[in-house]
Amino acid sequence: MLLMSSSALYAEVQVDVEELGKSLGGWDVKRDKAAEYDLSGSTYRTYKPEVTPTPEGGIFVSIRIDYCRGMFASNDFATLEMTFSAEGALVSTQSSIAIQGKKITSDVMRAGANVGGNAGAAGTAVKMGGDLVANLTEKLSRENLVEAGRVTFPAAVRHNFNKVFQTVHKIEPVQAPLLPEKSPAKPGAALEQKR
């Protein structure tokens, strides 16, 4: 007879932080907190994500992205928030960008029955990422920005959105080997062995 462990095994949703760092060009060797990279001629910095479990068994991922404006100018920054279900599917996303002390926040994009059509999880993510960037771009266009790195900041957010989505994995639990049940000793067995 086999005994099973009394503790339940659950799948876990995780962000592969090392894979994310590699996809962004590598985490900074000195500080190991951020990755710097160029997009469209501007330099951006993405910090390692903050990940917290959700009550439903999924995860909430928050990332800070800086637009590095140079030595004599203060950086602009954005936050990207993504929530994944216990199955690893993207449930919602939102972003905000702070430029010269003014914060511009996107609407919350949620997965719905008609989002992405029949394309599955990837189709849903493509639709939500596109809607997120379109919403941010439309709101930023009202600010009359001309600096290239600011104009392309929504594209940097989308770049990070894609990279995070690709590094979120559902990790299936590993079942420990089952141990055989020990059979109780028969009364008198010890006496028989002594004879």
Describe this structure in words.
The structure is a single chain. By secondary structure, this protein is an alpha+beta fold. The protein is 28% helix and 32% strand. The protein contains five helices and twelve strands. The strands form three sheets. Strands 3, 4, 5, 6, 7, 8, 9 and 10 form an eight-stranded antiparallel beta sheet that branches. A two-stranded antiparallel ribbon has the order 1-12. α2 runs antiparallel to α4 (153-167). The two termini are 30 Å apart. Residues 1-8 and 113-118 have low confidence and may be disordered.
- Compute the gyration radius: what is it? 25 Å
| Overall form | globular
Describe the sheet with the most strands.
8 strands, antiparallel
Q: Which band does the percent of strand residues land in?
A: 25-35%
Low-confidence stretches: 1-8, 113-118
Short characterization:
By secondary structure, the chain is α+β, with helices and mostly antiparallel strands. The chain has helices at 17-23, 120-141, 148-151, 153-167, 189-194; strands spanning 2-3, 12-15, 34-39, 42-47, 50-53, 59-68, 76-84, 90-99, 102-105, 109-110, 168-171, 179-180.
Question: Could you list some keywords that capture this structure?
Answer:
12 strands, two-stranded antiparallel sheet, eight-stranded antiparallel sheet, globular, disordered N terminus, alpha+beta, 195 residues
